[in-house]
Amino acid sequence: MRERMNKTRAYRGKWARIHGLWAEWAAILFLTLKGIRILYHRYKTPLGEIDLIAHDKTTLIFVEVKFRSSGDDLAHVVGVPQQRRLINAAQYFARQCPSHYTVRFDVLLVKPWRFPVHIENAWYGK
Predict the structure, then answer these.
(1) Which pLDDT tens digit goes with each residue over 12-56?
(2) Among candidates 62, 79, 61, 67, which has minimal Cα distance to 21?
């Protein structure tokens, strides 16, 4: 029984990674079509990973991409601990690559067979 549970967990983990990668590529396409230039995809720092780092004319945008197969609850897509992790990773990035851009944190919610939901300025970095 335990062996079967482990296989199921591994199976779910595999599909979660595949859906996550698909959602990130869909987000890249969507943002590019909106005129936002992607700088980094899956930028890794010692403090965490940032899904996408992009910029438009005057703003540096840190994007968290979420895949959801169902449900419309957007209020709790990115929790406070994950927000803190992303803020810390963004501060690390800013120390490594200083710039004169303003900073914004966005969330892009990707669902199958639907246009992505782009939440600009989802939270403020503190």
Answers:
(1) 778 878 888 889 999 999 999 999 999 999 999 999 999 999 999
(2) 67
Check the CA dihedral 29-36-33-122 and report its sign.
Answer: positive
The CA distance from 79 to 56, in Å, is 26
CA distance 41 to 10: 25
Token code pair at residue 98: 């200083």
Nearest to 104 by CA among 45, 58, 62: 62
**Domains assigned to the chain:** 2-123 (3.40.1350.10)
pTM, full prediction: 0.84
DSSP result, 17-43: HHHHHHHHHHHHHHHHHTTPEEEEEEE
